[in-house]
Amino acid sequence: MKSEVFEITITGKYFGLQLPEKIVLPFLEKNLKRVKVIATFKQNIFAFHGAIQKRNGNYFMMFGKRYQKELGVFPNDYFQLQLFEDTSKYGVDMPEELKAVLHSDFEANEIFESFTAGKKRGIIYAVLSYKNSQTRIDKSLLICENLKRGIRKNPELLKSF
């Protein structure tokens, strides 16, 4: 499932995108609140995962400064967006490093899989925040060890004890 390509601009103080109702309703009717998004501006193309949220009768999606920088847009710039059904397992792409570490550690993987979808995404985003592959491996190993120690709070999962 995919939407038509539509034009949009950044709105509000929280850098949200106000999504047209006619675009999001087909997704919501199929209970698809998480979507894959492709944003295009001039020659730049940026893909990301997002959540359709409803506030004050309008539909929004977060589009923070990191995404704006990646796409090369500023508030008041108009750019194109297209929404797709998110077929990923976690609602975000799993980094290969975390996937490999979880695959090699049965106990940590069992704990990880017992979490809510949002908790899993939080852990995945924490690992994705590191650019260097070796750092992502090191943080994935640390997270797995901390999970087995009973640590469950995301900030503490990245600390050495």
Structure description:
- The chain is an alpha+beta fold and 161 residues long.
- The protein has two domains: 6-85, Elongation Factor Tu (Ef-tu), domain 3; 96-157, no CATH class.
- Helix content is 41%, strand content 26%.
- The protein contains seven helices and seven strands, in the order E-E-H-E-E-E-E-H-E-H-H-H-H-H.
- The protein has helices at 21-29, 65-71, 96-104, 106-114, 117-128, 133-148, 154-157; strands spanning 6-11, 16-19, 34-41, 44-51, 53-55, 58-62, 78-85.
- A seven-stranded antiparallel beta sheet has the order 4-3-7-1-2-6-5.
- A hairpin with a 2-residue loop joins strand 3 and strand 4.
- Helix 3 (96-104) runs parallel beside helix 6 (133-148) and helix 4 crosses helix 6 (133-148).
- It is elongated and about 45 Å long.
- The model has no long low-confidence stretch (mean pLDDT 93).
In DSSP terms (H or I, runs of 4 or more residues), the helix count works out at 7
Radius of gyration: 18 Å
Spatial arrangement of strands, main beta sheet: 4-3-7-1-2-6-5
Percent in helix: 40-55%
How would a textbook summarize the main sheet?
7 strands, antiparallel
> How are helices and strands ordered from N to C?
EEHEEEEHEHHHHH
**CATH topology type of the largest domain:** Elongation Factor Tu (Ef-tu), domain 3
Which regions are unreliable across 5 or more consecutive residues at pLDDT < 50? Answer: none
Tell me, briefly, the overall form: elongated
Q: What is the C-level CATH assignment of the largest domain?
A: Mainly Beta
Oligomer: single chain
- Beta-strand percentage range: 25-35%
> What's the number of structural domains?
2
Q: Judging by the overall fold, what is the CATH architecture of the largest domain?
A: Beta Barrel
CATH superfamily of the largest domain, called what?
Answer: AF2212/PG0164-like
Distance N to C terminus: 45 Å
Structure classification: alpha+beta
**Annotation, overall tally of beta strands:** 7
If you average the pLDDT, what whole number results? 93
